[in-house]
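hi! just following up on the protien thing from before. the input was this:
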Amino acid sequence: MIYVIDANNLAGRLNLLLKKDFDTILIERLNRFFSGKKVEVFLVFDSSDPLGDKYKSDNIKVIYAPKDDHCGSADKKIIELVKRYNNDKREMVVVTDDVELARKAKKSLSGSGQKKLQIEGASGFGERLKKKEATPIEDKANRGSWSKPEVEEFNKNLLNRFKKYKK
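and the predicted 3d structure came back as:
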């Protein structure tokens, strides 16, 4: 599956736009969300730089759309990506709440014979992201280590289970 995400739109739905490094925060959150999944993810930001930028962060291709005559905006870059992967066999999902962008993405494939393009609202995707982040087991896994009280509580529970089993 291929995800093409309208980054500024999703960041807005997650109330990140006013944070200093909202892009870095969003990238980190999405890296955790997509960790271990066999997907290709394009996270497309608007940029004020005429050259733009792109790089890979774990399994996410981060693109700052160049502010030039050719590309001009993240929306145009998203449409370009949808067209580029038109003949790819994998399913494609565009994540945005921008109705006009969703319409243009679908229209860009009309008559091409490409599989059905899915549009997932940034609001709904943001809720799935928050829900996964709120899962206690995954929070511990993402932190990388447990605190001493957590380890003691886990060991205590494990010992109690072992004692019940042994009887």
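The first strand starts at residue 2 and ends at 6.
Residues 148-166 form the longest helix (19 residues).
cheers
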